[in-house]
Amino acid sequence: MFDLDRWREIFQSINKNRLRSVMSGFTVAFAILLFTLLFGIVSGLSNTFKGAFVDDAQNAMFIRVWKTSKPYKGLQTGRRIQLKNKDYNYVTEEYANKIQYQSARIYKNFAIKYKSNASNYRVMAVNPDHQFLEKTMIDEGRYMNERDLNEAAKVIVIGRLIKKDLFGERPALGKRVNVNGSSYLIIGVFSDDGGDNEERKAYIPLTTAQRMYGNNDYVSQIALGYNPNLSLTEAVTFGNRLERDLRNKLNIHPDDQSALSVRNMAEANKGIGQFMGILYAIVIIVGSGTLVAGIIGISNIMIFVIKERTKEFGIRKALGAKPLSIVSMVVQESVLITTLAGYLGLSLGTYILSLIGNSLEEKYFIKDPSVSPSIVIVATLVLILSGLIAAYVPAKKAANIKPIEALRAD
Amino acid sequence: MIKIEKLHKSYPIGKDSLHVLKGIDLHIKEGEFVSIMGSSGSGKSTLLNIVGLLDVHDEGNYFLNGQLIKNMNEKKAALLRNKFLGFIFQSFNLISYKTALENVALPLYYKGISRKERLKTALDYLEKVGLKDWANHLPNELSGGQKQRVAIARALVTKPKVVLADEPTGALDSTTTDSVMDLLKDINNEGMTVFVITHEEEVAEQTKRVVRLKDGLIISDEITAVGKSKAV
């Protein structure tokens, strides 16, 4: 297979006909470069969309309430809906098999103070499951547990940036902070991929908040993680049913989005999935078009090159070259050029994408654009194959010209 | 060495066909030095192309080295050309991007000889035609006479049975014509069959046998003065 003499012939031919080789190489390199950039940019867009939802669990659902916007069963518009512990427990009991995690939420804004440092932060009162719904990552210590909840313990889990604000580099775990006038024990420090705002939050047990601030059983929001065994469609159905049941239970008009709504990540995921599918389909069409244009480019050049070399082939045949040796010489040359040029375009494209990195994230929603190895392999195979065909067809034709006619060619 | 019986060849021109060779009978024995003479259109180039397996005949028989040439495919023809035939063309037909040495070595490449040996043999033949010092020059750095001598070295490098020369001096002046003819004579003296096509009387006179063609037929076939003197 490896014939040193053959390669020597090919390198000589490439070397002595640099312009031609560079031209055909350029066509391919350029096509692959565009292809790579296109794919990379779309994958960057896709990363941004996926990244927009890393804050919360993929299977999260949030039940929110506000004022009614429609009268129902004799009740006025503008009635303030309030979720309570019994609603929370109703969801738990009704849908146990469809729920993986469940947590209530109460939102508060409190000043947190340590020694002379103080600042206002969002404090959320939650259940232990909330850690998984919010994808809270514990850096030090622990999250709250059922015992904290049962005892309505005055414990707090603070965000990484709160620790930085109040403690700087000093340890925070085990220290006591003043939250809205009461002393809380720091049991954990967390980080969150959702951004700086998420890391300037603190979590306290739900029961503690209910007892300390109002002494009631009110709940601001109910967060759920649906059972991951449900399909997207099943999860969407579950969300809709939950919405309907709760509206019915709380005497809300069945279509009143304002009074009670369920934000379901399953719906968002389904939408993103479809959107990205369409985007990728467009890229595949446009990208293949670019590749095809490159292939046509190299085919044109090969036809020209082979026409130009017809006389040389005639000479070679008169000297005893078999048609096959001429065809394989030309094909190998073409495949070599397309492969090298293809890799050049690919590396250049990958390099440009790596330069872009996250710099376009703010303005153009392109995050960490890159091409996957499988696409690289497929594109390379397409190139080698196209180089092969682009050269084979005209070379075969040229090699079959009678030597006397080939010699007459100019 | 070459035996041709009732050879016919026509070329299609539109719907008609041009009958170029109209029944040629020719027998060339090993070691002969034959020239074919004729005006343009007489069919002499066509004859040489058929003898050189660069073209195929329509009718008649052609034996090369006792082998009947029939239904040749390109692969078989390439093998026979490489083994038995050496070509010298009017326009030299050197490969422009290869040096003189590489041009001469090329037929040996197709014979499957190792690179080291190829280049050594090629250099020997370049020395033989007096161009050893020009081995690493490209064809466009050589004069017409030098190019033709490179082409002759290339034709000889495989030690063919027959050297076919199509107007080898057609593009050369009289001095270089003489040096090329001297080379061909030397080749013939070494026992190789040489088959020259020419329309120059001075060239034909230096061969041993002259065959004259007219309108696709042989009109005369004579031993020249040189041929007679050698025969004696």
Brief summary:
Chain A has 410 residues and is of the alpha+beta class. Chain A is 55% helix and 19% strand.
Account of the protein in words:
The complex is a heterodimer of chains A (410) and B (232). Chain A has 410 residues and is an alpha+beta fold. Chain A has two domains: 4-52 and 271-408, no CATH class; 82-249, no CATH class. Chain A has 14 helices and twelve strands. In chain A, strands 3-4-9-6-8-7 form a six-stranded mixed beta barrel. In chain A, strands 2-10 form a two-stranded antiparallel sheet. Chain A is elongated and about 105 Å long. Chain A starts with a helix and ends with a helix. The mean pLDDT of chain A is 86. Chain B has one domain (29-45, 74-231): Rossmann fold (3-Layer(aba) Sandwich), CATH 3.40.50. Chain B has helices at 44-51, 74-84, 100-111, 115-128, 144-156, 174-189, 201-205, 225-231; strands at residues 2-13, 16-28, 33-37, 59-64, 67-68, 85-88, 162-166, 193-198, 209-214, 217-223. Chain B has a six-stranded mixed sheet, with helices on both faces. In chain B, strands 2-1-4-5 form a four-stranded antiparallel sheet, with helices on one face. In chain B, β9 (209-214) and β10 (217-223) form a beta hairpin. The radius of gyration of chain B is 18 Å and the shape is globular. Chain A binds chain B through residues 4-5, 8-9, 12-13, 16-17, 311-312, 314-325, 399-400, 402-404, 407, and chain B through 49, 52, 54-56, 74-75, 78-79, 81-83, 87, 89, 93-95, 97-98, 102, 106-107, 109-111, 115, 154, 158.
Please give the structural blueprint:
The complex is a heterodimer of chains A (410) and B (232).
Chain A: H1 4-16, H2 18-51, E1 60-65, E2 83-84, H3 85-94, E3 99-114, E4 117-126, H4 130-133, E5 137-141, H5 146-151, E6 155-159, H6 160-167, E7 176-179, E8 182-191, E9 201-205, H7 206-212, E10 218-219, E11 221-226, H8 232-249, E12 260-264, H9 265-308, H10 310-318, H11 323-356, H12 361-364, H13 373-399, H14 403-408
Parallel strand pairs in A: 4-9, 6-8
Antiparallel strand pairs in A: 1-11, 1-12, 2-10, 3-4, 3-7, 3-11, 5-8, 6-9, 7-8
Helix pairs in contact in A: 1-11, 2-9, 2-11, 8-9, 9-13, 11-13
Chain B: E1 2-13, E2 16-28, E3 33-37, H1 44-51, E4 59-64, E5 67-68, H2 74-84, E6 85-88, H3 100-111, H4 115-128, H5 144-156, E7 162-166, H6 174-189, E8 193-198, H7 201-205, E9 209-214, E10 217-223, H8 225-231
Parallel strand pairs in B: 3-8, 3-9, 6-7, 7-8
Antiparallel strand pairs in B: 1-2, 1-4, 4-5, 9-10
